[in-house]
Phosphoribosyl-AMP cyclohydrolase (Haloplanus vescus), 244 residues
Amino acid sequence: MTVEVDFGAEGLVPAIAQDADSGEVLMLAYVSPEALERTRETGRAHYYSRSRDELWEKGATSGHVQHVEEVRVDCDADTLLYLVDQDGGACHTGHRSCFYRTVEGDHVGERVFDPDEVYDDE
Amino acid sequence: MTVEVDFGAEGLVPAIAQDADSGEVLMLAYVSPEALERTRETGRAHYYSRSRDELWEKGATSGHVQHVEEVRVDCDADTLLYLVDQDGGACHTGHRSCFYRTVEGDHVGERVFDPDEVYDDE
């Protein structure tokens, strides 16, 4: 039976994208009911942008699509975990993961593409 | 140089706790500036409960402390990643991880303790 996700007052839940093979945490973004539906229908990660106020598909601009192998929910059903096969890098800065820095400012992440080349038409 | 975390209008950021060894994503909770400060000072994960409106230390009741090896921030500095050494299980249901179900309702997580024994005085 499908778990009923608690989207709360804002109609959004945070979703963690994790590399299904390596276990690396790639990013966190927000998901609306429609974004979850599209993700499950297409097998590609969709999110909802709070700043642009719109549904978006990860990789629609960059080509860095996330192929979703599994969607998990937490105990309270108010957070999602997308287990993904990530094309290229998840981060718009060119890193594999958005979590490429420690809070102390040390650079610990791997840069896998040049954002100037990927986003040059924006 | 320490990264300035963007706690936003609510004064909270989501924090993902990940097992530093296995890479398993354990839970997501929220962190206030004080919770982050306490986490960094003590090396034990602290969060802020939105429902109880108070700072809490993970494991203070259950004994299932999270020893924090590293704190990372994402590209926008509005999400944290705690890399932890988790005593026992992270989830109040007795599972190692709060993400023990798929959205289809399949049970995929490991149960590591009996919550009735751990929380029996609550």
User: Anything to note?
Assistant: Chain B touches chain A at residues 1-3, 5, 14, 16, 18, 22-25, 27-28, 36, 40, 70-76, 79-81, 91-93, 95, 98-105, 108 (CB under 8 Å). DSSP finds two helices and seven strands in chain B. The mean pLDDT of chain B is 95. Chain B has one domain: 13-113.
